[in-house]
Amino acid sequence: MKALLMYKDRDFDLHQTLPMNEQALTQDLELTTLFTAMALEDKFLFDVTRQAILSSVGNDVDTILYRQSVLKDCLKHPELIKRIYAITLRSMELEKKAYYGFFSKYPAAILSRSIEVLQGFVGTLKELRSIAELQADKFESDGFVTFFAMLRTELSDDYFAEIQEHLKTLKFRDGVLISAQLDDGNKGAHYILRELPRSTEWWITRLLKQIFIRKKSAYSFTLADRDENGARALSELRDRGINLVANALAQSTDHILSFFCLLQTELAFYIACSNLHANLTQQQEPICFPVPKDKQERKHAFTELYDVCLALQMGHRIVGNDLNAENKNLVIITGANQGGKSTFLRSLGLSQLMMQCGMFVAAESFSANVCDGLFTHYKREEDATMKSGKLDEELARMSDIVDQAAPHTADSLMLFNESFAATNEREGSQIATQIMNALLERGVTIVFVTHMYELSHAFYERKMPNAVFLRAERQSGGTRTFKLIEGEPLKTGYGEDLYKEIFKDKEALGG
């Protein structure tokens, strides 16, 4: 049995290898804030969310739309999804409770434990089938339609009747029938459990025969009441006979357990998404399901896009931005200090990841091409342990990014935040220009936040049809609107505004 709620044709792997730059993405995009809000202090939800989002780069359009459809069903029926999730938790708790410790290595203990667990699984599987029979028509996504159809087909009445019959037989209320062969030294070998012949006599007839017919089998024997060694030997013979059956039943139990584990994992992602949806809806933030485009296209078009992590930290609605970049693979962002440039860059990276893992995004509308690689190159704070200068460190990180992006460079999105500004503007602009030119030649999409006027103005003067230039808006009095507008790069970042803001109180006091 398969859940198939994350992919059409395969299971979601909670332990798959994450991209090499997952730590940089987590730090630069502040992903821990997002994971925490989705998990609501549930470690398992946190781990699933982290794995799903960070491994999403490379998902194709069909996978994204498949998950979107499943998520929409989950948002329509949150209580029912939580009920199914609770069933998976209860099933795994049954398995944990049936632990025999030291004795679990013996066939008899393995068999007894498997019978106990499987009996519990029968109850939870029946609950799932009942939900499928009563609620399936409320769901529209391919994922849930397939899932419920599988439950109705696989978990039939005949299936449960057969399980119950096997479990009844494996309790061996009438003893065990075992065959064996003599091996070297007259030792027993090839022990095989045989099915007991089914008697068609009434139980009262069998009882009377046991009372009045005293003749014993020529090969029978009776153990003395205190014959511990004989009892131990007989127990060992029984274990040899039931060993294959015990292992087979244990494997069957593990198979059903793995189904519940997969179902729990895949539902956990959608429950975490529902948690975030409820949070943002309560804050009256806009949410939309994005329209993904094929990776060969170059598009980023959105309205009221905002930084979801900032919104979660602030606890209220924040300013969003609009952009319509069709057939563009270079976005250069300049303008006033503390005008929202870095926040915008982060909102773009977050929305790209959220779209690619099948989630809604933090915007009124959003459409973008998928990518096979998402990379960030942000300035880092001074590190006293560094053995070289900041520029060397920046160039080393850039080299690592290029190496990581090599297999899918043409379909990558790279976000730069104040990169190569650790040296003078002329040298920094030259370094950045050479790197950007090389990446653009390979078809990489670049979004670059910079204060280097020489860099931004040089690209603006080239009148590139694939480039768009944004500027952080500043009103005449110096007020930041945190809106980005299309416009030519300016020479100043209006640092004097910050100076006045910081020192205005001292000036008022005559300082």
From TrEMBL:
SMART domains: MUTSac (SM00534). InterPro entries: DNA_mismatch_repair_MutS_C, MutS, P-loop_NTPase. GO terms for biological process: mismatch repair. Gene3D superfamilies: P-loop containing nucleotide triphosphate hydrolases. One of its GO terms (cellular component) is cytosol. It comes from the Bacteria. GO terms for molecular function: ATP binding; ATP-dependent DNA damage sensor activity; mismatched DNA binding. The keyword Acyltransferase does not apply. Residues 328-510 form the DNA mismatch repair proteins mutS family domain. Keywords: ATP-binding, DNA-binding, Nucleotide-binding. This is MutS domain V. It comes from Pollutimonas bauzanensis. The lineage of its organism: Bacteria, Pseudomonadati, Pseudomonadota, Betaproteobacteria, Burkholderiales.
